[in-house]
Specification:
The chain is about 35% helix and about 20% strand. The chain is α+β, with helices and mostly antiparallel strands.
Length: about 260
Amino acid sequence: MLANLKQLSSHYDEQGYFVMRNYFSADEIAALRTVILKFHELWKQDNSEFYQQEAFNSSLITGSQYLAPDDRVQLFNFISSKKLMSIVEAVIATKPAFMNTQLFFNPVNRQQKDFWHRDCQYDYDVEGQKKVINESQVLHLRVPLFDELGMELVPGTHKRWDNEEEYNVRQEEQGRMSSENLSTGKKVSLAAGDLLVFSADMIHRGLYGLDRLALDILVFDSSADYVDYVDDDCLPDTAMLAKIIDPRLFLNTMTLKLQS
């Protein structure tokens, strides 16, 4: 496994992503799916209009609004499990910290198209984006709960700026649309039990279709200035911490919050 982790780290460094096929057992996925569907059904009821009109994801899954404490502890233990922590630490060796969780699903509106983006484009102008992709590290760990079409990624863009085609499509310049195909895109299909790890700031898009329902866990490098993005309610409380087998990922975030 150690040699494999080194290979994964090297692949991530070069390409910005890697996939672990059949990484989770059917029982592990079934248990996770039960908790996530509790959240999803309550979230849909509470956000009915938004869900019907334009939503394709939700966030703050580990928060207290929709899940009972025991369900939250189950989620925290999954997120910080040995299986996931070994992967996280292969990419972020020093004090990785928990940021958030997101749930991705198909939009109800079938006319809605998937779109190319870098996560950082929603917080930074172009010059800021160029800086971020060279200086910081945010990981998405995607766990599909059902078989799905997966993701389309542009390998290597976690470390390089867009070429002309990529920029015009992603930014919708020169009459291009962010839903158009890119010649540099690579499709990665996913099945329940797989794990996809990719850089939040590489050019990517989710592919709508099939029974898409995927849990994304976001983790960041403690040296990066991202602790303000963390919602306090999504972290475990003291009673929960005692029930988490390996709470380091959350404790690192809590330490950063105290220091900020």
